[in-house]
Write a structure and sequence with these properties.
It is a single chain. With about 240 residues, this protein is an alpha/beta fold. The protein contains 8 helices and 9 strands. The strands form 2 sheets. The protein has a 7-stranded mixed β-sheet with strand order 3-2-1-4-7-5-8. Helix 1 links the parallel strand 1 and strand 2. The longest helix has 18 residues. The N and C termini lie far apart (about 40 Å).
Length: about 240
Amino acid sequence: MAPKDKYTVILPTYNERRNLPIIIWLLNRTFTKHNLDYEIIIVDDASPDGTLEIAQQLQTLYAPTHIILRPRPGKLGLGTAYVHGLKSATGNFIIIMDADFSHHPKFLPSMIAMQKRTDCDIVTGTRYAGDGGVYGWDLKRKLVSRGANLVADTVLRPGVSDLTGSFRLYKRGVLERVVARTESKGYTFQMELMTRAVGMGYRVEECPISFVDRVYGESKLGGEEIVEYLKGVLSLWLKV
């Protein structure tokens, strides 16, 4: 009899005090309802709003076997947060997602079912295919997101509709091998992960999702991140 699959969710956090209890409750409900073994690794980058203290309370509530805390001393980049969390993961599947409630756990059963049905290496949630969509953004931000994906798709041609998305399910071994070859640390990390995975021959399936703007707090995407992204696309084009 094959061992039961275990799903590790890596949640990087920074000033998510109000969002974290909601997303943890939804994740626990989803995994429990579908009888799935899981753990959630919270990687907090010294949030000044007390996110870590909330995470500690959630760990007591849901048990240390389900909530694992791996805090860091400061903001060290989104990519390194996933790498840091991956070191403590015990699941054979890794889920990466945002903690701000923009990625709803209700889509996880569909993503997991797609992986089981196709035996693909990666399932990525997409806002821009099938019945996927974006809600709560103004026109400017929608154009920025669409434009970022268009630029990346035109330059890199990865064959993925939502290259900047960050709601994904990976086979653990695949993620470890791709991460080992990924150089980006910030907002271009997700783009490079997917581009390198496709270049390494891994199979990717897309699952339509609805992306909803964060419930509490402000977006951390600014002008500097957009410039970093464009530089990242060019750099990746030269390397891959």
